[in-house]
Amino acid sequence: MSRLLRGELIKAVTTRSVLGFAVGGVAFAALNALAIAAWSGTLDEVAEKEEALSALPILLLLWGLVGTAGEYRHRTAAPAALVARRHRGVVLSARITAYALTGLLLGTLTTMVSVGLALPLLSDHPGPDLTSGDVGAVVAGNLVAFVLSAIMGAALGALIRSPVLGVVVLLVVNFAVVPLLSGVWEAGVNLTPFGAAGILSRMTHHTTLSVVSAGWVLAAWTVAVALVAVFVERRRDLA
Description:
The protein is mainly alpha-helical. The protein has helices at 3-14, 16-37, 46-51, 59-73, 77-84, 88-122, 132-160, 163-184, 186-190, 193-200, 211-238. α10 (193-200) packs across α11.
C-alpha cells in the first residue's frame, strides 16, 4: 500500500464522523431488521424476508460526501497535495479509494448486525426459509452497495465541497424528488443511484430492474461521478 493511500486511509478511519456513521448504520440496520422481521406482520415470500437483511448502504453516500467535502471546508485538500507532492487529482483518487476500503469495513459491521438480528426473527415466519445462498447474495449485494455508495459520496463531496449543501441536496433528492418520481415513473427511479442501491441491497423488491442490473446501474453512476470529480480536481490543480 502506498504511503499516500495509507495516509488517506488513516484519515478516513479516524475522522470524527466515522464513529457516528458506524453507530447510526448499526442502529438503522437493527431497526430495519426489527421493523421488517418482527413488526410488519407475516412474511411468506423470499423477497420479503430478504428485505429484513438490508443494511441501508445508501447512508454511506452521506458519509463519503461529508468526509471529503470537509477537506475543502477546512482547507486541507490543497495542503495535502503539497505535502504528498502529487497532483490533486491523484490525491483525490487515493482519498476515494480510502473511503471505499473504509466503507467496506463499515458495511461488513453493519451487515453482520442486520443478518445476525434478522435471521432468528425470520425463522418464525411461514413460507420458504432463506437458504445460505439467499443470505450470501444479500450480503454480497449490501457490501457492493456500501463500497459504491462510499465512493460516490466521496466524489460528490469533492465536487460540491460543502458538507451542509451536499447533505441538504441529497436529503431533498432522496425524500422529495425520488418519491415524486416513483409515483409517475417507477422504472426511472430504479435507474437513479438511490433506486439501484435499494434494489441491490434488497430494500426494494418486485421491481422492473433485476438485482444484477441494479448493480451495473449503481456502478455506472459511481464510475461516472468519480471520473468527473478527478477530472475537475486536476483542472483546479492546473488553474
